[in-house]
Amino acid sequence: MSAFSSVDQAADPDRLIRSLDHFASGLAAMKHYMAVTHALRRPTRPVLDLGCGAGHDLEILAAVGVACVGVDASRVMLGTAAERVGGSLVQATGELLPFADHAFGGCRIERVLMHVADPAVVVAEVVRCVEPGGLLTIFEPDWSSLTVNGSPVPTRWVSLARHPAVGGAVGELLREVGSSVVDRVEERSWWSAADFEQLTDIESSLDRAVANGHASGDEVRQWLEDVRRAAAAGDFTAEIAKVLWVATAPR
Q1: What is the DSSP annotation of 171-228?
Q2: Which of 102, 99, 93, 23 minimizes the C-alpha distance to 56?
Q3: What single DSSP character describes residue 96?
Q4: Strand positions, DSSP E, the chain
Q5: CA dist., res. 53 & res. 50, Å (int)
Q6: 153-193: per-residue pLDDT in tens?
Q7: What is the number of alpha carbons within 13 Å of residue 194 lying toward its C-beta?
Q8: Where do the domains of the chain lie, and which CATH numbers do they carry?
Q9: pTM score, two decimals?
């Protein structure tokens, strides 16, 4: 299970915060796209940022004039968010939000559903809290789409997320609760060999895959040797899809 599933119990929460700083730069285009999409709706009620983490996206929403409330299960993350943006911050889980029905004009979720126990429960709870017709933006990776040099990489080799392929499944979750999907935007990340190894923590990930019985030691060692040999020869590509779903809450 990923450390992001329980940040306050993680061995090194500061490392997780630093990783969010890194992602804030790499995902800047999609983050601003989401914020502007909410701003153009001119919501008359605050927008909920579920899983607000260290507050990077609250900062972007405020910059485009969107009033917002940040929610996170982590006390550590909320402390960092308070230092960054202050404002309205609430410690809660996505499965049980302490808000009245239809309290918000919209909601954004980013890289949260892959870590929760049941994404369907969280989506339903968010829809309860958003006014009819309010905007929902949900951005999640699809780790099952990861390829290296054109070949699929077994998901269990590289991801600890509870739901690594949820990026492709969000549309169905939204439809199941009566929301209307209005757009699907896919961003495909291309990683250098160095970025691939860093973002996947590849050696530790492969060791874990072997320990959990998802691969043999010989298999992963040979695979990593082949990948590194290709990278040294200048022949390396790693690609993964991250999917933004835009929808409206049921009327």
Answers
A1: HHHHHHTT-EEEEEEEEEEEE-HHHHHHHHTHHHHHHHHHHTTSS-HHHHHHHHHHHH
A2: 23
A3: B
A4: 47-50, 68-72, 88-91, 104-110, 130-148, 151-152, 180-191, 238-248
A5: 9
A6: 999 999 989 999 999 999 999 999 999 999 999 999 899 99
A7: 0
A8: 3-248 (3.40.50.150)
A9: 0.91
